[in-house]
TrEMBL record, chains A, B, C, D:
Belongs to the glutaminase family. The keyword Hydrolase applies. Homotetramer. SUPFAM superfamilies: beta-lactamase/transpeptidase-like. Its EC number is 3.5.1.2. Pfam families: Glutaminase (PF04960). One of its GO terms (molecular function) is glutaminase activity. Gene3D superfamilies: DD-peptidase/beta-lactamase superfamily. Substrate binds at S63, N113, E157, N164, Y188, Y240, V258. This is Glutaminase. One of its GO terms (biological process) is L-glutamine catabolic process.
Length: 304, 304, 304, 304
């Protein structure tokens, strides 16, 4: 297969790539991962699969799951959702309190931590059993009932989640958190603990390349219009304060996580997931971005 | 023609659109324009033209010309250019000194004022007769030798350009302006004074929808890779701190100016220019954005 | 007595003073106070008393008690204390997260909320029964065993203390809170709930005008050097971002609270307490500052 | 004399003080000074003189002269002056654009660069021959017709004064500079170029310790009330973002300059000038502050 060969070619080229990134260690549990893991998986809208390396090994997808939380919240609240969270890039690190204070407790977008905490609050308001209902939604989109939260990661994040608690309290002081902080934060820390393989991740996100419909099950997850809008938010805000750089180099909407995962979408074509745990200074997978830049350069296609 | 009909349909729908925007008045000369002007022009990569309303009336394209300055500077300096200016959205208003100070005089992107001043400095360094050479470049891209600077606008901008002078001095203090400030700012104020009609604007920017080649003359303006990257910067940064919102609503890379103009690019399809002088609070054409949102909703195609 | 006559004279002059201030209402319980209360009490280092108006009515001294917390913490940690909290004015509102983030969790001074939370943490570390031990210390300085925390105020502050919780969590994320956040914040909210009359307040703070010694009991509270330094911190930082203005107008070191109280010190002469619940926009007693400005103008003496 | 002996004693103690400061080098001319110079001079309100070390050598007093500019502007505009400049400490470095932008072009106080530029603008508005008239005023206060601007320093400051030009342009954009920027900045750069010896400096500032009257000539420079207020501003704002620290350690109102000079006032007692060119990280004389801290500790008197 062409993609398969391309993965091998790019990987060969990356032998000489000196990865100066560092594995995330601010969450103790994440620091334990093998830094040399590397996996890629691409799934096309016509259901073809192309994997490479450690594509079938589970890793913590971390912030990538914020796209799924946004997806569910968007179906529940429609455009009202954006009264409580913006769609603008933040221009500052992902956990900045400064901007949140200046903006009166309205986070810039749903992918910075503050924004995902607001989305968590929305889901806690709507769902009967928030954590159970949400993981069922993810299992449905993933067409995989094994997807689950990771208790160890939850515990690890809680042990050092003081800055996230600060964000939640600040937003509560502005009235932008409606539920009990501890319940919202328990949901949030669980949200960030989901584990998937590259293959699962790529398949799960394929609906965003297919007008909101899972190609495997024909389930409608989102309307075409909302699908475009989530892709747009990923393009603008998916990589913290490196979103412009990713768009400049790779040219696809995508989302990263501090576990070293990245998922990117080529509308009407494919979804691709990469995993390499060492992060650059902006908190995005160093080798993952490099791989994707070479990939879209070689295929000579991007959304631009 | 289909686009022509669509323009009429959308325009009819906009009869009931209550435009709360305000004409830019911080530059005295801009305040004199008729606020009810409205023009649209779309040019396809296969050279078809579709105009509507005041599409053949000149207006001050203002910051839109920053894309052309970036285009020329990018061909002259290649990727080195991005050592002196970033590609990240700013997340703050277009003329903020705060961020520039925090970033040690490196502007976030080439479209905020500070970034365009750096680009002006680059062009002043490279060009023998900077203003003459640049306007010739624009005339070539536009395939129109009548395009010119507007002296009245230049004088008007200089009379109140203290904040831009502050930006230039701050960057000079960080060593990121190489030439004499007055020469650089004279170039910058001229750059912002260019006038075009919607038709001219749409035609001029068509190379960005066509892999860097002017379809009318087959002149290569940029490489395909650089073309994609400029489109990406427009997507991320083309609308000041409303870039995410434009991307969310319209889904195309584009660039606005405080004269009320917007140009947007659908790669491999068309370039579209809209003009409506009343601006929203973020400094972008209020009705222009509304029109484009309805246009991409109706055509059901965007890059996402 | 001269001071007594002066109080009457100034009060007469203030009949025409139109007090545009507002009673603090962000803490529900504080909003219930009678806004027209007005009391003054001055105690000299040679033990003379001069009262006026509602000088014997209890009110919530709020942040004024932070000086007492600092006093005790300073005796326990000496100059080491200032590794965890600065002595610089903040230049920003009293509960700003922005500056705290920029300063890596080290509060500018012990009188902004973040600084008083660090002082609370220090006391929680040192004291066996923090709340009991601290109120005993206050009772000793006040020579009054009736001084106590106010449960209603504590409950009221806790019900809306999300921003303070945000400050505490942010500092914990930087490692500048050592104890459990809930224990520290319980202490902090109690600290802010102490009630005194103007007479009690004036008498309690007299040691700061007397080289650290209570004139009534000859108890040494602080060394002369530390006493000067606390006076200096009050001068620089005692009135949030209005410290310069107070120093400019009144010329004495002092401390205010959102309950409308102010205490000011004239070293080697007297301690004066004023109470008027309506606050100006900076959160300091509006009429209280006016009274003190007229008082030091009339007496023609200040520390400058 | 007691002070003379004390200077010697403190100086002996400072033999073992390891001065880690650096001579200011951002103005080329300042970088040429001998870093080991050290002078002290104290003048009492009863006209006694006490000098030590290089007390009779000229140095660039730099920002210290801002107190004299404020003094003259205050007599010309009375309290109206404070509509255009505040009296609050800035909490940020002395040349910050960020705060100035947030405060709409109103500088926090007359001693940060932006504030002194506004004061310069006020003097340019009032004085017929601004530079000549101002230096005459300084000569009168100093009772010394030799005091003058230093052309070399002016030229040196202008060659690298881009940040100050940025401040002036930013304030002009907010309407807080009334005159031509180049004229105002020429005045400002001259203001900062004045040279004095420690003896001259100490004598010149003595009126601030003597209710506004020069003890030597009995000339009234300021009213007693305005004198107190200038002392208060020095206390709050005289040492950039180290004002609280100086007040904490030394306990006297004072003003520093990047030439390594410091002048401090003990109201009704004396004026003391110190000169040591090596600066700490906040831009204040490192050894100078240490000397003054030991001096007020030894004399056991400060305003607190």
């Amino acid at each position: 297969m062409e993609y398969q060969k391309l993965f091998i070619k790019i990987n060969n080229g990356l032998q000489e790539f000196h990865d100066l990134g560092q594995v995330a260690d601010y969450i103790p549990e994440l620091g334990k991962v093998n830094p040399n893991k590397f996996g890629v998986h691409l799934t096309t809208v016509d259901k073809q699969h192309f994997g490479f390396g450690d594509a079938n090994e589970k890793f913590s997808i971390q912030s990538i799951s914020k796209v799924l939380a946004l997806t569910l919240a968007y179906t529940l609240e429609d455009e009202n959702l954006f009264k409580r969270v913006g769609v603008e890039p933040s221009g500052t690190p992902f956990n900045s309190l400064f901007q949140l204070e200046a903006d009166n407790g309205i986070p810039r977008n749903p992918f910075i931590n503050a924004g995902a905490i607001v989305i968590s609050d929305v889901l806690v308001s709507h769902l009967k059993n928030p954590k159970e209902d949400f993981i069922q939604f993810v299992q449905q989109v993933a067409e995989n009932s094994e997807i689950s939260f990771c208790e160890r990661i939850v515990a690890s994040e809680k042990s050092c989640g003081f800055r996230n608690m600060a964000l939640a309290n600040l937003m509560k002081s502005f009235g932008n958190i409606k539920n009990d902080i501890d319940e919202v934060m328990d949901f949030y820390f669980n949200l960030c603990s989901i584990e998937m393989t590259c293959q699962e991740l790529s398949k799960t996100f394929l609906f965003l390349a297919n007008h909101g419909v899972c190609p495997f099950t024909n389930t409608i997850i989102l309307t075409p219009s909302k699908t475009k809008r989530i892709n747009s938010i990923m393009q603008s805000c998916g990589f913290y304060d490196e979103a412009g750089e990713f768009s400049f180099k790779v040219g696809l909407p995508g989302k990263s996580g501090v576990g070293g995962g990245i998922v990117a979408i080529h509308p009407e074509k494919y979804s691709i997931a990469v995993w390499s745990p060492k992060l650059n200074k902006k908190g995005n997978s160093n080798k993952g971005i490099e791989f994707l830049e070479r990939f879209t350069s070689e295929t000579k296609i991007s959304i631009f």
